[in-house]
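Example (one chain per record):
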Amino acid sequence: MKRQYLIIYIYSMLMCAFCLISCIDEDEYEDSPNGNFEALWKIIDEHYCFFDYKNKSYGLDWDEVHERYVRQFHSGMTEGQMFEVMARMLSELRDGHVNLYSDFDVGREWSWHEDYPSNFSDTLERKYLGTDYRIASGMKYRILDDNIGYIRCATFENNMGGGSLDNIFLFLAPTNGLVIDIRDNGGGLLTSAEELAARFTNEDILVGYIRHKTGKGHSDFSSMEEQRLKPSKGLRWQKKVAILTNRSVYSAANEFVKYMRCCPGVVVVGDKTGGGAGLPFTSELPNGWGVRFSACPMYDRDGNDTEFGIEPDYYVALKDDDLDRGEDTIIEFARQLLRK
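Predicted structure:
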């Protein structure tokens, strides 16, 4: 992560932490079903960052959610019942960054990819990579038989080594274009997403904005602060690029797509991404359960929310007849674009 964005990121998280600590200092709830419910509802009420956006998107009313769910809590509830109802309440936010953690389960809302076709096949991935692919910085890469480079980036959980990235792009330099396949990439480190994207610009460019909470109100935010992508000091790619996406592209991978759409010569092929445009933060309930939630919203360079995903330049789905022939429809479409 470049220095300017790192400073913004740290400052945003410190502001979120300050607000959260203030909340915990002011309000204490008993360790009971009703006490834990009220603590959970209020943590989200005061610190979650997408209430206004989701109210406009699908009519989310967090006060109404409170009234609907509070009636389900009573002193005779088991832990399992309490967890189930709390997790169901959090799913009203439709946010993959919102989780409830106990020692027996994790509450999650994964409709952002579970309700859609996968548009990805492990079997086809193995066919295109073969067995003699290279591995560096947690990515697999090779040159396909039409002289198109292929990088399979399945996660951003690993740190990107500058020397490893230099070696990858040096190896792929003779190719006529590059496919970066990030389908099923659920995210990881924003620093890794930015470091890879920095290989595709020769100048400092605006890629988006970030805001942080300044108060407990649903609309209490700082002004927009720029996210800028600075060119890497290592080897940079100068040819055409196709980014492959599906609904399981989320969080830091969603940000990577946002960055890459601002770089020259880049097209996005596949399905809309899953989204996840809020920096997550965590807190704790009186009974020790953890809760994670989106605390700082991020936007694209036009100021648009990407919480519910980013549209591709070309919508392409994996076809069954291509699958039967051992071909990946999305990869083949991208290769055709790059050959042109």
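Caption: The longest strand covers residues 290-300.
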